[in-house]
Description:
Elements: H1 7-27, H2 33-64, H3 68-89, H4 99-128, H5 131-145, H6 159-177
Helix pairs in contact: 1-2, 1-4, 1-5, 2-3, 2-4, 2-5, 2-6, 3-4
Domain Hemerythrin-like: 7-125
Organism: Streptantibioticus silvisoli
InterPro entries: Hemerythrin-like
Amino acid sequence: MEHGGNVIDELTTDHREVDDLFARIEQQLLGDPGRRELADKLTAALMRHSAVEQRYLYPAVREHVDGGDELADKEIEAHGDLGELLKDLEGRPADDGEFDHLVAKLKLLVCAHAADQEQHLFPRLADACSGQDLDDLGGQIRKARRTAPTRPHPFAPDNKLLAPGAGLVDRLRDALTGRGR
Length: 181
């Protein structure tokens, strides 16, 4: 969770961690309760990632990248779809008939989103920002990750406004239920 690079390094490392969680889910036998535990870890990682992108990455894209408003709006729309899928997946046991379908759908969405960012958005941001700006954003993301939500809140109007309070409540719920250990 704590990486130590600029904004692009931070978010790319998040992408690799999420790829690893998908692979670990797929390695488990169908219906194995371990798949549910890994799905909870995946959900927490994706929610933290989404919240920090909305709070720091997309405002920077709007400010520095030509056509940034359109790019950020497209990315934020994808986050809404992500939240709905994660909410559908939340709490479903691994042997539920929809569990594997939702994980597969989630993987397609997340992998396409990450690939698009890495191939198009990140290079444009790197060209538009100074190294210091990218490093500063990386530091802000590391700090914000500690308080970001770990559960889906698809009906919240904006994850960046929701993040601090919801993150605290989510972490309390996680501690009480043992989720994500």
